[in-house]
Amino acid sequence: MRISELETPAILIDLDIMEHNLQRVAAYARQHDLRLRPHTKTHKIPALARKQLDLGAAGITVAKVGEAEVMLDAMPADLYVAYPVIGRKKLERLMEVAHKTHITVGLDSLFTARGLSDAVREARVQVSILAEVDVGLGRVGVSPNELVEFGKQLARMQHLSLEGFTFYPGHIKATGDEVQEQLRELSDLVQRMSTEWKRAGLPLSIVSGGSTPLLFESHRVAGVNEIRPGTYIFNDKNTWHMGACAFEDCAASILATVISTARPRQMIIDGGSKTFSSDRLAGSSEVSFGHVVEAPGAVFNKMNEEHGYVDMRGAEREFSVGDRVRVIPNHICVAMNLHEQVYGVRGDEVVQSWKVAARGKLQ
Fold first, then answer.
1. Do the beta carbons of residue 275 and residue 254 sit within 8 Å?
2. CATH number for 256
3. What is the pTM (predicted TM-score) of this model?
4. Are 278 and 289 in contact (CB under 8 A)?
5. 185 and 93: one domain?
6. Residues near 270 by Cβ (< 8 Å), separated by ≥ 6?
């Protein structure tokens, strides 16, 4: 099938670019002796998780139990749930997963740890845990000064195997001169926490961190031996805008059709908030929801559910009703969650399609 035969809107994955992204990160992890446990939140497709594993990933990462259940189809030897699992039903489902593969859970409260311990005891499985520490994002995780004491409490939990600690440096974006200073501060902090953790006699086989914006700087963070990037498989406008990848590294785009040019200096495409992520461009005051590949000077600046508004005043060319454009979304992870199926392409040919099996797995 040719791309021109696809109905729109549709997510296209340039397989040559995607495979280059996967191979590059796999090689980087090997070069720096970093355990790669990529987050599947971006692609949500077991077949792509299997590609990551076949290229050397030690395991995969998910957020929700529903995603873990789906990703069993990738046959991972190790599955990290980077999200607190709370509630009896969720824990029962997680234990079913734990009967099929090794599970590690990140957590930041004794409440969560006790619930998990009880579930593990009843299910008679083995589960590992990582203590989550907040290194600046202000989302989840104990404070660095509380980490060792929290680790001591976790080490006393029955039925759970403490392996180390985890963090997410999402507050550091790959733009501006201040990044290098932030990176040095992060490295100093992680090194101090690791030293204090070991001095307390706590087990430390894993120090898990990393993000796509800081991906290729991960080896500069002292003590980190595992990384969990997600977006790198496709990249998106945010990743490109932050300088964490080049435009040529963006593998995913959304194919859309021009449905109206009735209003001067504006075109409407057949994709809105039900097709694209509503996330704004990170670190920018620009109101834009994606990059129009065929007209970089156009601004995709407004959405209704089914309509995308594109300001054409700065566009390099004109379009007619029926023309098609590709848009690189600001945030591909959310866009993937909106689509039932995506298409792998090489040149003008559609050579692969995948069901987005983990979309909507919020529980």
1. yes
2. 2.40.37.20
3. 0.95
4. yes
5. yes
6. 8, 9, 256, 257, 259, 306, 307, 308
What gap in Å lies between CA 25 and CA 229, rounded to an integer? 9
For residue 103, what pLDDT is reported?
98
Domains of the chain: total: 2
**CB 55 within 8 Å of CB 23:** yes
SS3 content of the chain, % helix, strand, coil (to 5): 35, 25, 45
Buried residues in 27-59 as b, exposed as e (16+ CB within 10 A) = ebbeeeebbbbbbbbbbbbbebbbbbbebebbb
What is the predicted pLDDT for the residue at 210? 81
- Residue pair 105/79 in contact by the 8 Å Cβ criterion: no
Please name the amino acid found at residue 257: T
Which helix (H) or strand (E) is 182 found in, with range? helix 178-199
What CATH code is carried by the domain that includes residue 95?
3.20.20.10
Strand partners, 44: none
CA-to-CA separations, 188 to 123, 148, 184, in angstroms, rounded: 40, 16, 6
Report the pLDDT value the prediction gives residue 303, as an integer from 0 to 100: 97
pLDDT score for 176: 67
Flag residues of the chain having pLDDT under 70: 175-176
pLDDT, one tens digit per residue, over 300-356 is 999 999 999 999 999 999 999 999 999 999 999 999 999 999 999 999 999 999 999
pLDDT of residue 285: 76
Q: Are residues 138 and 119 in the same domain?
A: yes
